Amino acid sequence: MTRVLVLNGPNLQRLGTPEPDVYGVVDPAEVAAALGAATADGVEVDLRWTDDEAELIGWLREAVDTDSPVILNPAAFAHYSYALHEAVRLVTAGGLPVVEVHVTNPAAREAFRGESVIAPVATGVVAGLGVDGYRLALDWVGRRVRAEGVGEHPRAAG
After folding, report:
1. In terms of CB atoms within 10 Å, which end of the chain has fewer, N or C?
2. What pLDDT, on the 0 to 100 scale, is given for residue 20?
3. Nearest in space to 73 (alpha carbons), one of 56, 90, 89, 54
4. 115: DSSP letter
């Protein structure tokens, strides 16, 4: 069984509340249900939410230690967190995929959202497709796990 960490950054646990015209009205429970329905055989989803950059970095280190692929919605951290950039680089340098996901299309919004410091070290990016982006990322990760055996042999943590 391969565990995929689905990590979400600041304010995403409030998805569906602020700016429903921008983010839609889907809430975190619906994201969890959609991911559960899309989970392939042999893949387990570990969905997490935090506003804390240090906690997110710790979870990325955990991904390396446990050989877990990652789907990451860094939210606003995408635009300035070089610490998160370095943590993502640790994951991908370890041969594990990291798919950056954004519910909206950051490039079509305010100018400061036009660049992600995460994208250059991520395996791929899905943006602007609403919560369907999570499902697409999970589908891709699941196919990679089956084809290449990525994440099938957990390392001992610590």
Report:
1. C
2. 59
3. 56
4. -
